[in-house]
Amino acid sequence: GFAIETGATVALIEKHRVGGDCTWTGCVPSKSLLKAAKVAHHMRTAGQFGIQPVDPDVDMRSVTGYVQGIVAETYKEETPDVLRERGSDVYLGEAHFLDPHTLQVGDDVIQARDVVIATGAHPFTPPIKGIETVDYLTYETVFQLETLPKRLIVVGGGPIGSEMTQAFQRLGAQVIQVETVGRILSRDDEIASRIMMDVFKKEGVDIRCHTRAQEVWQAEDGIHLRIDNGDEIIGDALLMAVGRRPNVEGLDLEKAGVAYSPKGIEVDRFLRTSQPHIYAAGDCTGSFQFTHYAGWQAAMAARNALLPARAKGVREWVPWTTFTDPEVAHAGLTEAQARETYGDAVATLTWSMEKVDRARAESDTAGVVHLVHKGGRVLGVTIVSERAGELIHEWMHVLEGRLKVRDVTTSIHIYPSYSRANVKAGGALLQKVLLTGKIGRVVGQASQLALKFMRWQRGL
């Protein structure tokens, strides 16, 4: 859209389906499925609100119909015809570079002054013995299920694996989640992992950490997964959710002179590849794999290609949210990252959602606002809460320098809202810094002198 508004002639090439992973196999279907699962969970747990709980009859075919209906509604706004009406030339097919300025799509040959590569990524399948003999699921196929598996094995404890674990457990499956390291959501602060593991266990998930899948095979009673301690896990379905890999093969990037590796296309801070007129954005660069980051990078790449003044298109950190219930949102440095850089100067402040009235009212108290700071300067924030993905934006402005913690605490926040958690946490941080910093020491010394004076007066 930006490129068209500048007057540029734009050709959009799509190998598979316009809209990409986010529309078809990522953000849109996963959040729709999570909503359906949350409704089922609320039906089972309605007793806490004084409402008669019921065990819902989950028709997976109807749930999938709902999910695919939302996908179809979203796609209506980005079909090839809609994009053509907005001014883009749309080519459906696999693109191949013929030279640095020429691409071929089927019988069409396209000349371009500038090129932006945004080919995304695909599911990674680890080298587990026998995996090729089993009909396993990935995020590309799980949203097509029409039968709810009684037992679902999820290999992977990252965002995709954890969202699908909770969704299918709430829909009525017995989920066994397998993770190689000691906790799920390992890229988040440890406090978030602990909370979510407790939530999952209370909901019935069988979590196996420090567990590596060794071999898998199909038998009459289901899919068997042997893990590294020799035990066998049996399920009716297997979901592999162990990450994604950049889509860099098949483009003939060598003919364009674009440097790449299995880790992704190499770019500089302006998103330029080894060919200055060819840019790359999003998952294909091997960096943070989030739709919001990919979209932002694509806009920066188009801007840098079409306008004289270049803008930085690579960020050292990118905010994210895992849309479990509660959500897990993060911005800035984790506590571990901060300590690697600043050592013992790093401190933390944790504010429980149990102290937030709106969370109490909705029984959503399993969560925290966790601030990582150095002398009161916020370095990173993790929020575990209902609507954490919305709450984190205020802290992003603090981290980017547009606001200070005092701006958060002195701004009027509607009561009762979840955003009051930010005010409470920020206020506690300022109070802590005040009492332990130079001003606090001066106030403390003055108080001690006053007490001594009062005792001296009483002794006269």
> Strand portion, in percent?
15-25%
Strand order of the largest sheet: 19-20-23-22-21
Helicity, as a percent range: 25-40%
Q: Count of helical segments?
A: 15
On the 0 to 100 scale, the average pLDDT is 94
Low-confidence stretches: none
Oligomerization status of the protein chains: single chain
Any idea what the radius of gyration is? 26 Å
N-to-C span:
83 Å
- What form results from the Cα inertia axes? globular
Largest sheet: 5 strands, antiparallel
Describe what you observe in this structure.
This protein is α/β, with parallel strands linked by helices and 460 residues long. It contains 15 helices and 23 strands. The chain has helices spanning 2-5, 20-24, 27-44, 60-75, 80-85, 159-171, 190-202, 253-256, 291-306, 335-342, 357-361, 388-399, 405-410, 420-436, 438-459; strands at 10-14, 88-92, 95-99, 102-105, 108-111, 115-117, 121-123, 151-155, 174-178, 206-208, 213-219, 222-227, 232-235, 237-240, 244-246, 260-261, 264-265, 278-280, 320-322, 327-332, 347-352, 368-374, 377-385. It has a five-stranded antiparallel β-sheet with strand order 19-20-23-22-21, with helices on both faces. A four-stranded parallel β-sheet has the order 10-9-8-14, covered by helices on one side. The longest helix has 22 residues, at 438-459. The termini are far apart. The mean pLDDT is 94.
